[in-house]
User: Fold these one by one.
Assistant:
Number 1:
Amino acid sequence: MKLIKEQPFAFNWLSKTKQLIPALLFICFISSCSDHDQELIIFHAGSLSVPFQELADLYEQQNPDIDVKLEAAGSIACARKITELNRKADIMASADIRIIKEFLIPEYTDTAIAFTTNEMVLAYHNKSKGRDSINRQNWPKILLNKEIKYGRSNPDIDPCGYRSILTMKLQEKHLSSESFVNKLRNKDNKYIRPKETDLLALLETHTIDYIFIYESVARQHNLQWIALSDTVNLSKVSLQDVYNKVQVNVRGSSPGDTLQIKGNSMVYGYCLLKEAPNPDNARKFLDLLHSPKGKEIIQ
């Protein structure tokens, strides 16, 4: 990941006796409120699990009366916890800042803050078939090999899933075959998982040979990977016009709706939710995120 300067995005276009019973209920109520006041609830992208756990541990050391509750999921799934399941949280951190714009602004939050970037890679293990010859040019041919199995995350739930497809589509533009994406999307679908970090077990057990994943996750888990071409890996703001030439449709914010996602350089974002149970604690956590130590952890 590459930390970027804190930047607000205001998406305008773009939430024993009967006498004892009242006393006991009052005590239970006070106790419940007290416990709740000591919690900080954060929904976050799976790719943020490692750095956010480190941030949470540091935050709890500095604030021993606060219990940080982290819930990792695909970023779209995180948003739907709020919009469809009416789950309460203080902060949502997305692997794609556009998810906050599309799903949460303006009803659940007013702004989204960009805070880091990433890039797509193709990770593998020490027994992956084709590992000795795979490179940024020939990986499409290797993944299409019937002997080779690959995994990706669900594009309707996880930005890494739709970014995997965008990566395929961008690579297809460099190939003579126009059927590459369809062939690859129809292959190995039983290895699709809800979020990109769910693919790690499949790779570590050698169930599959390759996974589309973020460079930061590959690095955090000491994986081997090949770096993809800049015109494909969605990492460069300067190549935005190139990335914008491809798109993928995913399930929208309401049942039956479709959301078109265009290729875009990767920008992670977070928001403080309007109905945050503990906004003061949330702001302190976000201050830590942007502190020198927080920047060191995210990077």
Number 2:
Amino acid sequence: MKYDKAFDKFSSFHVLVIGDVMLDAYRIGKVSRISPEAPVPVVLLEEEDNRIGGAGNVALNLIALGAKATVCSIIGDDEAGKTLIQLFEKNTISTKGIKASKNRKTTVKTRVIANHQQLLRIDAESTEAINDEDSKMLLRHITDLIHEGVDAIIFEDYNKGILSENTIGKIISLAKEHHIPTCVDPKKDNFLSYKGVDLFKPNLKELKEGLNIDFDFNKDAPEFLNAVKSLEEILQNNISLITLSENGVFIKNATAQHFLPAHIRNISDVSGAGDTVISVACLCLLAELPIEDIAAISNIAGGMVCEYSGVVSIKKESLLNEIHELLGE
């Protein structure tokens, strides 16, 4: 079967993930009363869990799909950063490209969950752009890793300051010199900086924000297609993959375009779905699958992780089983 053969190739791929890494902290308990100090619930803490987030979650997905992943980023020289490094090592993700800086704070997103519901999220982070010293250090490590050999680069941008227009341009040029495919999961700040990449994957909201336009997708599909055309005129990217939430996905290259509807799911949590989609899409691109298959498999994978609470990685065997069931091959 063609999908099995494609998935067998995943284990031979080494992907460099560049972007904002973070620590996802979960504080889980129960609520049985309201505080006498203020009208807020009192959470009886039962469990504490730390997980890899941001660009690190992309690497986790790549590992779960059988590929090798190296993450390149700048973190804080702090306890959260040390915890993150330990988690990367535990999950066999190379940390050769991760450097600690005294100028930064490691991003930590703490979620307080009680009675199976998220009550609160607390963010501790640095969002300003990294300074020139850290930027030069990042580029040095990226250059070294590319020279050592990688099969693809994923830019995972969360607007936390790791990626800048100048850095992005230099990395793309370097990738082109070495004939390395580039895939992007963008955010608003650098949206139009990824000129000449191979695969560009915004969601619908990011597409509108990045182009500073607005339209109702359900009422004006032609306006959506015009937006994609405008995007491609600016970026000159090879493939556009737009995730459309409950409306599925859209994919386009120079010769074809496809709308694929979403599959019916019991949605629990959409956190991390974009990380899964870009990971799967990148590996399918490397496996030389047609764009319709790239979109179909990414669509299935993104939907699957939404059935779980919290940020989770898609498993290779589970994804293959779902593909055979839904796509019939």
Number 3:
Amino acid sequence: MHQFLPYAWFGGKCVPFAEATLSVATHALHYGTGAFGGMRALPNPADSNEILLFRADRHARRLSQSARLLLTELSEDTIHSAIHQFLQANKPTCPVYLRPFVYTSDLGIAPRLHNIETDFLIYGLELGDYLSPEGVSCRISSWTRQEDRSLPLRGKISGAYITSSLAKTEAVKSGFDEALLLNSRGKVSEASGMNLFIVRDGVLITPGVDQDILEGITRASVLELAKTMDIPTLERPVDKSELFIADEVFLSGTAAKVTPVRRVENTDLSASRPVMDAIRDRLTAITEGRDPAFDHWVTRVRLNG
């Protein structure tokens, strides 16, 4: 069972979670016409009255851009203000995951984005490890990642996640933890809700934005961090066969953080992951506010009272 935070941001204010309800006729429920974000917040290990948000500016920017893909305006300032009020109301005492969501709130039956009302909400839940930090097994999904020409993949559009849902369930029901999706050109794209990295001969490699991936914020952070650690990086197409011979394979995402892949299909991968371990340790230090060089990636919210 999920442990939801007691208050949600709904209708422009904080209300008890149980009161943040929608009509069964809500447009976004039927047509997937929404866009969401995901953000981790944790109490500062050194100061329990301070909440740390990882790359809040990037998350707000991406959600604002996603809203524009739905032909609605949601400013970054509006997102930041709502998140701050949300945290002040809830005062979380353990790591939590925030889910801001912009959606068509109209009660209509026509699939459209014009002449329609939209709204914005936030809720949160306690969240530790979304995937096992010891590693996950992955299968190649029979489902294909959508193309940007059929769906705006630069945004986290809620309707797009039907493919992720199908792939994830297929993987779990066939004995795996996670799914890896190929794109329409047969190249590796991403997992059900995470970006993918491989390491070959000391080079950190990840599919580029031309491979129908979501432009993940953790992905971008890993690439930027690796460069400062003198780890060579390369964004390029990744073939399926490379997964079986790579020195390291791992996933990245807000919920998943940095998670190793220990098996792909029936091939066990190396348990030695020096590149991933170095990046994961550094990223953990940053998110916990222990790395002065990247303190600009952390937003600190001081709790009142």
Number 4:
Amino acid sequence: MILVVTPTPPDSPNGNGVTARRWAGILRDLGYRAELAREYRSGDYDLLVALHAVKSAAAVRAFHADHPAAPVVIALTGTDLYPDLETTGVDPAVLALADRLVVLQPNGAEQVPAQMRDRVRVIYQALTIPAGSAAHAPPDPDCFEVAFLAHLRPVKDPLLLAAAMRHLPASSRIRVTHAGEARDPALASEAKAASDSSAAEGRYHWVGPLPRDEALRVLARSRLLAVTSAHEGGANVVTEAIALGVPVISSRIPGSTGLLGADYPGYFRPGDSADLARVLLAAEQDREFYQSLCERCAALRDLADPARERAAWAALLSELTL
């Protein structure tokens, strides 16, 4: 039996919950029994997969105490890795208990102490697209819709897009649909004000949290995905966009350059609303630039292939002789 621990409820719509459910499904498809939980509880387990080194530290310690010979896999998230492990509060002793450390893009390995990097494995996140699903949602012909799927947390810099709208000319047809939970009351208040404000000229609309299938429908029908985060471990929504054929623009952060490539053309300076507006306007009005985004993301489609993610887990488990 494999125990998969996630610091959020296993049915949560946020990134950790989505990832934990998908990984548990992969483990079951590979022939293993897998149990999802928010914390460690005693049981007859052969392996622990823990999402988040900081928030799952107690589970890692308790599991190792009860099963000292059983392997431990820790998946390092963005809030573990960036800006660095010491700042985020990762306990080196907890990392030392891990037989393997999973990161979601290659740059993540650079944050791990050199003496532990031989334990690091990169597993790109994937998206399975059922037939007749959100992948077939048509774009709105009346605007250039930009999807922004991010909960309102400071690390996501969730108000940057609303600020960028004020830099756009009146002729722009860009409209932002922002879906995400109000994790921070102050940010939620500002997002609501920006959504209602005439200063944003109706271009930014925060719709609050959406069920996963509806959020994917927003993404699939959009002409662009925007990622404004200050830090990401390797945003699930980026590989979802790639799988759905939606080009991406992102703040230039390691979590995105690790997925999209250092020379990807769709970056803007983190926290710079004017630079974000520049890239948005180029995507809307410069056909050659927009096509370059589409082509680069299409070339990365293999990263989001569920078969690739499944094979990566099979290889990792084989290394642990499970």
